[in-house]
Amino acid sequence: xxxxxxxxxxxxxxxxxxxxxxxxxxxxxxxxxxxxxxxxxxxxxxxxxxxxxxxxxxxxxxxxxxxxxxxxxxxxxxxxxxxxxxxxxxxxxxxxxxxxxxxxxxxxxxxxxxxxxxxxxxxxxxxxxxxxxxxxxxxxxxxxxxxxxxxxxxxxxxxxxxxxxxxxxxxxxxxxxxxxxxxxxxxxxxxxxxxxxxxxxxxxxxxxxxxxxxxxxxxxxxxxxxxxxxxxxxxxxxxxxxxxxxxxxxxxxxxxxxxxxxxxxxxxxxxxxxxxxxxxxxxxxxxxxxxxxxxxxxxxxxxxxxxxxxxxxxxxxxxxxxxxxxxxxxxxxxxxxxxxxxxxxxxxx
Length: 349
Known about the structure:
With about 350 residues, the protein is α/β, with parallel strands linked by helices.
């Protein structure tokens, strides 16, 4: 079984899911074309068995084309339709290959999306047999593009469930005081709207006795303009292997994004047994956020976020631990095994 993956930026969860797929399918061979590592998330790419990795850039185009011809993939996963070179490659993929477009765009009925829907049959449906998306908000878009329901698969972006589930179980087994620490794992970019979180946290913490700390993990354009406060720690980027210590000493996860098609970190933190506070723009909330394990607020609404944070800061250990258990339960709706099975199901369809 030969799998070609035309990807954008690799991340820890991607490698974790691929690793499990290779373990479950010892005859599988992979070839991955990927974008250069983003300096805002300098992820260290680990070696994978039976897998070749090649970075996409202008000087590599001929090499990539030759690799595809020689590799003769039986199934191709392509990240979206924004890379014209990737779309050109689809024209030379063997005719009997399964061709899958993977995307996380939510259906918003914008002018641009409606134009794309109208012309879909000319440059999407003529290149791909299947669509693989994170969840229902994206499935609606795939249906609009013209894919048949039976050819649309969900569960594209599971967290590395084996890794984070272990953290979650450790957290639930901890008999000590519940950590009065809020955690945000997000790039310091406009779309994540971290300044709204910082201001809301400072106000909420001040009104409740300054008993909590906010830890922020990430880098980006806004890092140098971060708000400094004695109860806020800006920790920079952390490799996946470094995350356990920060999660185990945290009590609540907050993601205030004003634009977030999915958000794999939400699944990671649910599996890690952290209650969730998410803006209404976070796509992954549709699967992992329940009334029992967290709260949602209008994106950009500092007052509403502050109100929610105050409520959580006033909860006792029993309330927070119950939300923690519910988060872990919610996170187990999706796993890396599901990703592996879905890829195999597409191959065998």
